[in-house]
C-alpha cells in the first residue's frame, strides 16, 4: 500500500531512510521548508545534503532504531533543530533556523524485520518564541521596562560565578530618587510613575549592552557592571547623577527637578557574596543620603 499521498497531507515533516541512510521518502512539508525537490534527494544518502547530520549523536540514534527498534527523540531544548531550515515566518528575529522537535522510529517490513527509519519533524518555533517572550516578561519590571528584582538576583549570581572563573572585576551601583515621596504627594502617583520611567530610560541610554539595570523596589534601582572596577563604576555613577540632575522633567506643563543619590560597591574576589555586594552598595547609598543627597558615595 502506498501512503505517499497521506504523508504529503500532514502538517509535519516526514522523512524515511533505509538501512544505509539513503532517503526513500521526502514529504511535501520537507519540500516546502527546505526547497529541496523529492526527486532530487530520493535515493541519495542523507549526509550528502545535510552534512550536519554526520555526527555521532545522530548516527548512534539511527543504529539504536535499526538494531533494537527503539524510538529516539531530538528535543528542541537540547538540539534546537535537526534539519537547518529557515524559520517559516519573518516574525522570528531571534532564530536563524526553525526550532524543531524530532522523533525517530522503526518501520518494519512484511517479515517483521526493521527495514527503514522514519523521522517526524515538528516546527516548534512558535512555542519556543512564546515561552521566551513569557520568560522575558516575567523578568521585566512592568512600569519601567528594565529588569526586575528577581532578574537582578539571577544575573548577579551568574555574574559572580563568571567573575571568579575569569578573575574580572564586578561592581554595582545602587541609586535612589531623592525626596520621591514629595513628588508623589505634590504631583500625584501618575507623575511619580512617569518620573520612574524617565529616569530608567535616561540611565539605560548611558549603560553598556552588558550592564544590567533593574528596578530594585519603589524608587530604587540597581545597575550591575560586569568587568568594571570600582573606579570605573564611580565614574559611571557620577555620569548617572549628572544626567538626571541637569534635566528638568515636564509633566502636565509643570517642570519638575529631580536628583538621585548613588552608592557604589565592588566584589572582593574571595569574601563577597551577592548579599554582601548589595549590602555594601546599600550602605554607600545610605551614606550619600546622609551627606546631603545628589551625590555618589563608594563603599568603605
Note the run of SSEs as H and E. HEEHHHHEHEEHHEHHEEHEEEHE
- Shape descriptor: elongated
What is the distance, rounded to the nearest whole angstrom, between the alpha carbons of the first and last residues?
82 Å
As a whole number of angstroms, the C-alpha radius of gyration is 28 Å
Total domain count: 2
Helix count from the secondary structure assignment: 12
Architecture (CATH level 2) name of the largest domain: 2-Layer Sandwich
CATH topology of the largest domain: Alpha-Beta Plaits
List keywords for this structure.
300 residues; Beta-Lactamase; 2 domains; 5-stranded antiparallel sheet; alpha+beta
What does this structure look like?
This protein has 300 residues and is an alpha+beta fold. The protein folds into two domains: 4-131, Beta-Lactamase, CATH 3.30.450.20; 139-298, 2-Layer Sandwich (Alpha-Beta Plaits), CATH 3.30.70. The chain is built from twelve helices and twelve strands. Strand 1 (13-18) and strand 2 (23-26) form a beta hairpin.
